[in-house]
Amino acid sequence: MIDVKSSLAILSQREFVDRLEKIGEQKYHDKHPFHQRMHEGTLTRQEMQRWIANRFYYQKCLPIKDALVLSKLPERSDRIRWRERIIDHDGLSENDGGINAWLQLAKAAGISREELLDGHHFLPGAIFAVDAYVNYCRLNPWWLAVASSLTEVFAPRLVSYRIEILETHYSWIDSEGLNYFRARLSQAPRDSEHGLELVMRAADTYEKQMQALKAVEFKCDVLWSLLDAIEHG
Amino acid sequence: MIDVKSSLAILSQREFVDRLEKIGEQKYHDKHPFHQRMHEGTLTRQEMQRWIANRFYYQKCLPIKDALVLSKLPERSDRIRWRERIIDHDGLSENDGGINAWLQLAKAAGISREELLDGHHFLPGAIFAVDAYVNYCRLNPWWLAVASSLTEVFAPRLVSYRIEILETHYSWIDSEGLNYFRARLSQAPRDSEHGLELVMRAADTYEKQMQALKAVEFKCDVLWSLLDAIEHG
After folding, report:
1. Distance from the B64 Cα atom to the nearest Cα atom in chain A, whole angstroms
2. Domain B22-232 = CATH 1.20.910.10
3. How many helices (H) and strands (E) does chain B have?
């Protein structure tokens, strides 16, 4: 009996990235009504603050997620590269890094460090979505955890546009508060390049490649669901 | 009704460390017959190689264990400090770090990098003991995972003695191979200081302090069991 499934040819990196891009076009959170309204400049100050505060729960969980992925990566050379993500978010010291930069964004938008850190702003839907992502990375094989990070392929375009939008429509947020996004413009491409390399290496059958793309869809659902929670407030 | 248990007074750091030292005196692996023979200089070349090869499984799992602990540490400042352990073991690049230094020790003792990395030297008992340690850190609250690392309090004395012993009795191992141990002389005290600080902060009742000491005993059992496996060969 011919195994029809296994006879499907493995995709080249080019073809894989094409499929990835299609997922991005359909499911990435830049299409979410809340982001659409952010981009039109029609979010209220309160809505913007709610986004910043709840998105902080995501930011705060990223080094945790990345440490879980690190604990699974079989190759030392890959752990050394993946470690940069933890350093990017946690910082070289307490006074730098992505989490600190997000706290500065919050401050620039009128939310104090203390009230953000005490967690009372976090909506249950936001927590559940982010925890689903962390647990996905905790419980799945490393290459699926890595694949779920590939939304980073789409991130620079959105982030670069977001900087413009915030400067134009939400100028009540001090421009210094946008340093988090500026740093991501160089970090995300470096990260997604490594992520893609790892997934292409590990997903060595067409079926595994499809699983990897499912992981990206899952991650799109996480980001979308986070915005749903923020939109409903 | 008086809760007798809770009426036991919390130990000062001094008292806690005294109890810790007592565990070390009774259960630390420097008392294991295999280590005793190592120190007397009576291990055969084959036994020494077996120790180096199987202890490598422990070394190789340390950054994995430390990434799991990192993923649980609630404070960013502690994660930044704990991260140093991962950097120490995995290295700044593939050409340095503790794992690399252990591979050099193995080479100095006549075991090639390739045969060590392919894993066929690892004895089941050694794997089970080390995996028990990693899983303890994976499955327990962060402060117990941290407490289990406190055997580092006892390590510098043993490691410093070991350098002497190896240079004296096992001079067929090139002295350059001993760099791993030289590095640990400064790393272990820094690590155990942070570990102790974390445990004293988190174990805020006498009962929790007793649990933390149990974690240290557990870790002593792991190291002892690793030597049992190596001794039986």
Report:
1. 4
2. yes
3. 11, 0
